[in-house]
Write a structure and sequence with these properties.
The chain has 192 residues and is mainly beta. The protein contains 4 helices and 14 strands. The protein has a domain at 16-109 and 147-175: Beta Barrel (M1 Pyruvate Kinase, Domain 3). This is MOSC domain-containing protein.
């Protein structure tokens, strides 16, 4: 898909939802569902990370009043393809993502990008997921597979992106995703 168009002087990128997942508990992997529901300002209904303030245990320990910039976790299915080709059989939701996508370069999106998913949901991209040691506990060596050295020597994080929910609604596999890039200059994603 990954069609880029100009609509009303704004760059638009399109993709597709391939899977949706959630977990009521603080588990690493999330169970695939037929549908999840996003709730404005909170995240994925019934997911352990739903809330206006941080829910990730390490961040709660630092400051439980921080805003939750990690309400929704997205990973591109192309990463799963790449990992499987390297001998890491990872499936949708197993790396903790709520939404698995295809055809949209999630890691290349700038901060502030709006993702319209399905007919109602709108999320705003806040940053990158920082790969953590839980990846290696799930599958030894996986963390190194989602970290690369960039041409300038910087660390490239490939474990997905995070977002906050601006407008709620249901999301299902097969739903279209439209990415609306923010005005220039674009701010690259950093870990949140």
């Amino acid at each position: 898909m990954n069609v880029v168009q100009r609509e009303a002087d704004q760059q638009v990128v399109r993709g597709l939802v391939t899977a949706v997942s959630r977990s009521e508990g603080h588990t690493f992997s999330k169970r695939s569902e037929e549908q999840i529901r996003l709730v404005a300002g909170l995240g994925v209904e019934g997911d352990a990370h739903q809330g206006a303030t941080v829910k990730h245990r390490s961040r709660v320990a630092q400051d439980p009043t921080q805003p939750n910039l990690r309400q929704v976790h997205l990973i591109h299915a192309e990463l799963h393809d790449e990992l499987r080709a390297k001998g890491y059989p990872v499936g949708a939701g197993e790396m903790g993502e709520n939404v698995t996508t295809r055809g949209i370069d999630l890691l290349g999106l700038p901060a502030g990008t709006l993702l319209r998913i399905g007919s109602e949901a709108v999320i705003e991209v806040t940053g990158l997921r920082n790969p953590c040691p839980q990846l290696d506990r799930f599958m030894p060596g996986l963390k190194d597979q989602v970290l690369e050295q960039g041409p300038d020597g910087s660390l490239v994080r490939k474990a997905g992106i995070m977002a906050v929910v601006l407008a709620g609604g249901p999301i299902r596999p097969g739903d279209a995703i439209t990415a609306e890039l923010p005005p220039l200059p674009h701010r690259p994603l950093d870990r949140v």
